[in-house]
């Protein structure tokens, strides 16, 4: 049995381009973001991958990315489950702030801690740990059982909601996840063991 799980971060969003903390805000993809999503679809097509079900967040940039990928695969209209458990980490008071201006105001190190530490939440927002506390139960209840039953699953979501899943799947420590960045529109193809561990992982970066 195949036990296929593909994770993909959305393509560049309008707020990624403007360098703003985005979190639960809902900007759409830029032109480049659309191109990245189409390219992700083409890469999956080259590998002859198709899916039985898709999961995404309730945010436009992830849904739009998924739609573009499914169109490339000739799988428009595939059953898709949207849930806010897969949303980006909530950036709290930083939402909408320019990342360079935040560095000037709060200092480079503090902003890095808010963005990449495991358990320090940005003011009023979610740490990666808090994000994992919603993404992982959802993954274990709704997504993993389908993968283990042989359904081919694609998840289109966000930098930090996916980092929390990657951390768990790959058994990364808080230090290791700190350095792990997910590129926009780059699918990561996992094949899982029968108990949900990682049998193989392939990052489809160029
Ligand atoms: O702004 C955000 O919501 C995220 C993802 O774009 O940013 P960061 O990479 O700083 O976690």
Automatic annotation (TrEMBL):
Transition state stabilizer (site feature) positions: 158
GO biological process: gluconeogenesis; glycolytic process
Reactions catalysed according to its record: (2R)-2-phosphoglycerate = (2R)-3-phosphoglycerate
Catalytic residues identified in the record: 10 (tele-phosphohistidine intermediate), 88 (proton donor/acceptor)
Presence of the UniProt keyword Isomerase in the record: yes
Binding residue positions for substrate: 9-16, 22-23, 61, 88-91, 99, 115-116, 159-160
GO molecular function: phosphoglycerate mutase activity
Matches recorded under InterPro entries: His_Pase_superF_clade-1 (IPR013078), His_PPase_superfam (IPR029033), PG/BPGM_mutase_AS (IPR001345), Phosphogly_mut1 (IPR005952)
Pathway(s) this gene product operates in, as recorded in its UniProt entry: Carbohydrate degradation; glycolysis; pyruvate from D-glyceraldehyde 3-phosphate: step 3/5
EC number annotated for this UniProt entry: 5.4.2.11
CDD domains linked to this entry: HP_PGM_like (cd07067)
PROSITE patterns given in the database record: PG_MUTASE (PS00175)
Pfam families on file: His_Phos_1 (PF00300)
Keyword Isomerase appears in the UniProt entry: yes
Keywords (A to Z) from UniProt: Gluconeogenesis, Glycolysis, Isomerase
Complex and partners: Homodimer.
PANTHER family: PHOSPHOGLYCERATE MUTASE
Protein task: Catalyzes the interconversion of 2-phosphoglycerate and 3-phosphoglycerate.
HAMAP family linked to this entry: PGAM_GpmA
Family: Belongs to the phosphoglycerate mutase family. BPG-dependent PGAM subfamily.
Protein name: 2,3-bisphosphoglycerate-dependent phosphoglycerate mutase
